[in-house]
Amino acid sequence: MSIADNIKSLKKETIPLKVTLIAVSKTKPAEQVLEAYTAGQRLFGENMVQELVEKQEQLPKDIQWHLIGHLQSNKVKYIAPFISMIQSVDSLKLLQEINKHAEKNSRIIDCLLQVYIADEDTKFGLAFDEVIELLRSEEFSELKHVRIRGLMGIATNTDNEKQIKDEYYELKTFFDGIKQSFFRKDEAFSVLSMGMSADYKIAIEQGSNMVRLGSTIFGQRVVKHWKNN
Ligand SMILES: *Cc1c(COP(=O)(O)O)cnc(C)c1O
What we know:
It is a single chain. With about 230 residues, the protein is of the alpha/beta class. It is built from ten helices and eight strands.
């Protein structure tokens, strides 16, 4: 099936209306992003700053770009002028840096706090107690140019569906608690980004309202770098 067919069938058959689809285009050339765009897709996710910036320059300006990969503080300035959402905020220091560059660009940047839920050492993210500590901190309350829209999490890369389900259930429960404790009157705090190609159906069952799909839309990624394709 073509990229356009994949998007259409996902939206028609698999992904409920209330769940937002982020098309993860990392490693894929701009022509393929354009193919998805032509099929109506406007939300795209990338995990590398340089690749994101180059695609943003080449592609239609009404694309909303989400950063979904680890962000180094010294690279925030490159994406601050245009980024639609940063899903991978994993420290107060990074959030302060985003706030600084958002202010310079006279913007408020939407962010998700990335929560560590996987049983793996390699994933970035905040622990549950670190999320609470961050939200309670005085430093956080001073940030006027970032808006926390919700939480993002990546489950363990495993065939064990019970484990994936438990991890997403835990994140949903945590999300509900954070909403109650810190954002009860803030309608903007509403996004729970969980689910990738391998596990998005489980994630949606557990309450996800934003899924990030790459290979389901664009096909398997080759290991080769995107610029050499
Ligand atoms: C690559 C990536 C995805 C998409 O992965 P697929 O398995 O291709 O759907 C989703 N989220 C994050 C954070 C990623 O890095």
